[in-house]
């Protein structure tokens, strides 16, 4: 780094951090409740806008200014071999990349930017589905989030779509 004219600032890594490199950080969040905002030109999910919802445990990755998110089937810190699931949100592509349309994005992939990345994701407008199937819930995406709106119960982890991708593959950017 020094020979290229740069330097890397040392950071103390919190327990939720899974991996860290120069322009990349990966962390996880346990299941929690978060407010979500929906804005769709067809009026879909309008009744969900601004409501609070239980969230699944998530793995987040910021690499070169791009945010990717996957879900976890268990509410515990994942290991490198832990299999991931589709994060059941609008604005995500099939590889977990977030379409950041209205999202406020931090400029870095540092420990101090983690909360800003999470806040930016949840405070942005969820506007569109980028993939066909986001959940195994019998009512589909609309049924899942409608059933969770305003509830204090836990996110139904059995509605997640399992992937063959592991945490290690996600960190390295490999798809399975």
Structure, described:
It is a single chain. The chain is of the alpha+beta class and 176 residues long. The protein has helices spanning 114-123, 140-148, 167-172; strands at 17-21, 24-29, 32-35, 37-38, 52-55, 58-63, 66-72, 83-85, 125-126, 162-166. It has one domain. The protein contains three helices and ten strands. The protein is globular.
Brief digest:
By secondary structure, the chain is of the alpha+beta class. 14% of the residues lie in helices and 25% in strands. The two termini are 32 Å apart.
* Spatial sequence of strands, sheet with the most strands: 1-2-6-7-8-10
Average residue pLDDT: 90
C-alpha termini separation:
32 Å
* Major sheet details: 6 strands, antiparallel
Percent strand = 25-35%
User: Poorly predicted ranges (pLDDT <50, ≥5 residues)?
Assistant: none
The helicity comes to 10-25%
Structure annotation, total helices: 3
Number of strands: 10
Structural class estimated from helices and strands: alpha+beta
The backbone outline, from C-alpha atoms, is globular
Radius of gyration: 16 Å
